[in-house]
Design goal:
CATH class: Alpha Beta
Helix content: 25-40%
Structural class: alpha/beta
CATH topology: UDP-N-acetylmuramoyl-L-alanine:D-glutamate ligase
CATH superfamily: Ribokinase
Number of domains: 1
Shape: globular
Distance between the termini: 33 Å
Strand order of the largest sheet: 6-5-1-9-10-11-12-13-14
Number of helices: 12
CATH architecture: 3-Layer(aba) Sandwich
Largest sheet: 9 strands, mixed
Strand content: 15-25%
Number of strands: 14
Order of helices and strands: EEHEHEHEHEEEHEHEHEHHEEEHHH
Low-confidence stretches: none
Mean pLDDT: 93
Length: about 325
């Protein structure tokens, strides 16, 4: 196996997050799924944008958020995702490159425009996400760089992007490239609705031994395994996934790797402000520990520390120095 150029390369939705605080009444008035994620078309996206208060715009998307956390910790990363040749496409490209992440997927001319996620944050710190996937759905296999995939220790795949046909084919090709190069494949299930639509595909990937590290929250674990008991869900995947990570919000996280099991509590914080990106940053901390050979419990602690930092403020990008914060908390 050749020496890795990257610690992690990720394929995911190239989305610009548009985030604004709001009250519960506006959620009801707009008929939104409080605390959930809903796919919307271009017309609905414009309607919701018009209803938002003052907002912040920053490059986002689940896998991109994870890479931003990894890069902040000191990892070498690259991202593959599709933007359009428009203003938000430029915003995304600038932000992710400014974070120190390699991104060279050419912009797509014409319509649809760059994807955007309109995020309404209520006083209970829940984020209600409304996503217009736009150009991100049109990442063809031809845009994949197999050499870059083969040059990363870990290929990280975002479940959200499994939905549209073209990027699903690109991700399958990336899995082949990673396997041929002897690299590891990490997969995040992303959301229950994705499992409802593509659970058979995900279960097949697991059964075929193509997933080395699986990230799931407890709701996603239940949807994937058909049980509402965490231990039963873990048992259903035993021996099929080399490393399983199950997050449980305020209840902490469980990791199973080989014959080792570890559990960690959620890191204490003064106030939960916005849960956007909590799972993404947990994955960042865990993967950073993993690619650096840290033991399972320490990887989970790194994930919990990064997740706690991200929910202490608005947005899915860290405001504190993650590397320093992890060093302080772990000693």
């Amino acid at each position: 196996m050749t020496e890795a150029r990257y610690d992690v390369i990720a394929i995911g939705n190239a989305i610009v997050d548009v985030m604004a605080p709001c009250d519960d009444e506006l959620i009801e008035e707009l008929g939104l799924n409080h605390g959930g994620m809903t796919l919307v078309d271009a017309e609905r996206a414009q309607e919701l944008y018009d209803a938002m208060g003052p907002a912040r715009e920053i490059s986002g998307g689940s896998a991109a958020n994870t890479l931003a956390g990894l890069a902040a910790l000191g990892a070498q990363c690259a991202f593959i995702g599709q933007v359009a040749d428009d203003q938000l496409g430029e915003v995304f490209a600038h932000d992710i490159r400014a974070a120190g992440i390699d991104f060279d997927t050419p912009a797509r001319p014409g319509h649809p425009p760059t994807a955007r996620c309109l995020i309404f944050v209520t006083p209970d710190a829940q984020r209600t996400m409304n996503t217009f996937l736009g150009a991100s759905q049109f990442l063809p296999p031809a845009r994949l760089n197999p050499e870059a995939v083969a040059a990363a220790k870990v290929l990280y795949l975002e479940g959200y992007l499994w939905d549209p046909e073209e990027p699903r084919a690109a991700m399958r090709r990336a899995i082949e490239a990673a396997r041929e190069a002897g690299r590891q494949i990490a997969f995040t299930l992303s959301e229950v609705f994705v499992i409802d639509r593509h659970g058979d595909d995900f279960r097949a990937l697991i059964e075929d031994g193509l997933i080395d590290i699986l990230f799931a929250n407890h709701h996603e674990l239940f949807a994937l395994t058909g049980t509402d008991d965490i231990e039963a869900g873990i048992a259903a995947l035993h021996g099929k996934v080399p490393t399983l990570v199950v997050t449980r919000s305020a209840e902490g996280a469980i990791g199973i790797s080989g014959g080792t099991r570890a559990e960690v509590a959620a890191e204490p914080i003064e106030e939960v402000v916005d849960t956007t990106g909590a799972g993404d940053l947990f994955a960042a901390g865990f993967l950073y520990g993993h690619v650096n050979g840290e033991p399972l419990e320490r990887c989970l602690r790194m994930g919990a520390i990064c997740a706690a930092e991200i929910i202490s403020h608005y947005g899915a990008r860290s405001e504190a120095d993650l590397r320093e914060l992890v060093a302080q908390r772990l000693g």
